[in-house]
Write a structure and sequence with these properties.
Elements (H helix, E strand, L loop, with lengths): L3 E3 L13 E3 L5 E9 L12 H18 L7 E8 L2 H6 L1 H12 L5 E6 L10 E9 L1
Parallel strand pairs: 4-5
Antiparallel strand pairs: 1-2, 3-6, 4-6
Helix pairs in contact: 1-3
């Protein structure tokens, strides 16, 4: 189920995301609740931002896989961080973790800085939408 990525020239070239994702008709939508960097015992895996990002994204993909999908089925992600400067400072490392899990698939995304997340110690939370065949 290939997506059509919509990136108007008037918006400039996106870096690490797509401006729009057009999904083919007939797919089922999977709404993925916000996932943080915790393990199966619901313990935060690390105080390190990149480690938490990696695990939160892996947790999103675990939901997608459980529904029978793959990373390429993810159409949209919203990433909530408690410190956007920490995200900016570690973009290279985040990108490495991204490519290890998602390859070169860049869905429509937003990154939002928030005051805090529900779980104490959580630095990042990722929610999304996938289109399943």
């Amino acid at each position: 189920m290939p997506f059509e990525f919509i990136n108007p020239e008037s918006l400039g070239a996106p870096r690490g995301y797509s401006n729009g994702v057009l999904a083919p008709a007939g797919g089922r939508l999977l709404f993925i609740a916000g996932q943080i960097g915790w393990d199966e015992r619901q313990r935060i895996v690390s105080t390190d931002f990149v480690e938490q990002f990696d695990r939160a994204l892996a947790n999103v993909l675990a939901v997608v896989a459980e529904a029978g999908g793959q990373p390429e089925n993810v159409a949209r992600l919203a990433i909530y961080v408690t410190d956007k400067e920490e995200y900016r400072a570690r973009t290279r490392e985040v990108g490495e973790r991204w490519r290890a899990l998602m390859g070169r698939h860049f869905p429509a995304m937003a990154l939002v800085e928030v005051k805090s997340l529900l779980e104490d110690g959580a630095k990042v939370e990722i929610e999304g939408v996938a289109v399943m065949p």
